[in-house]
């Protein structure tokens, strides 16, 4: 039978979120109901609330989650009841042109659950990133569940979005390897994860760039060997500072974890000749970029964007959880505080003030 639980919903643009009753249907073919154990408070959820992603209100928010499979629908073979899973928002199809050419991390036909969760009055909810896990239970496609070794859900659940995006931007997209120099612009959760990924890969030097000196101090815990305080510096001065730390050449890989034209230009010019720029910060639709085409031609290299860290959850999540359990990946340092679900609105405010890397709802 359908289950009624409490969930955090954005009912209209810009309004404070509310904790209300939601109805989770029984899983249909290819679907799974998950008992949610944790859910990180991500900037993406705030963007949903503010209308920055769409206007399909009401939204059931939450997506950085770990939990336990409670029910499976007909035909589900990926997971079983009782499995500990990290949720992802890229259930691959296995049949599109990207999947068929052996690049499923670029799958062009990712999917979510077919059924909708609803408000108590039957109003259909749009689940954030197809997950909607600021709730005691959620309904997802089976392919959105990645079985991993049981761990602290508040920690490993963060792999479901921002942490994977940052680590993957470095290792998967940027192809950071031993001895390469890396600069990361923006040291929030995604940027710090990119630093951690670069450290895992053996990069050196690893340069962290941010306005906030406190964030730069924290960045050292994730592998930064050098820091640049960009507050008060012009774009050219930031570029010069990176070049000074890399023998006058620029970094082999520069990762823009902010996603605005100014930081992308910094990334473009702060890389070495034939270097790589990776955009993982998410721009807003109105942003435009102007850069001389002759500079693009003359500097060579790669200009790349990173979708979800170009990850393949079934490959990457178990590996990263294993590294965490070995003590080689400090995922626990991303968890600033553990909160209850009725504190999400307050957590948004803390996030906006830059006081936390991640607030995590724990059930």
From TrEMBL:
Keywords, ordered alphabetically: Metal-binding, NAD, Oxidoreductase, Zinc
Name of the molecule in the record: S-(Hydroxymethyl)mycothiol dehydrogenase
InterPro entries (UniProt xref): ADH-like_C, ADH-like_N, ADH_Zn_CS, GroES-like_sf, MycoS_dep_FDH, NAD(P)-bd_dom_sf
Family to which the UniProt record says this protein belongs: Belongs to the zinc-containing alcohol dehydrogenase family.
Cofactor(s) it depends on: Zn(2+)
Record-annotated Alcohol dehydrogenase-like C-terminal domain positions: 189-324
Domain Alcohol dehydrogenase-like N-terminal: 28-149
Gene3D superfamilies the record matches: Medium-chain alcohol dehydrogenases, catalytic domain, NAD(P)-binding Rossmann-like Domain
PANTHER family registered for this protein in UniProt: ALCOHOL DEHYDROGENASE (PTHR43880), ALCOHOL DEHYDROGENASE CLASS-3 (PTHR43880:SF12)
Highest taxon, organism lineage: Bacteria
Species of provenance: Brevibacterium samyangense
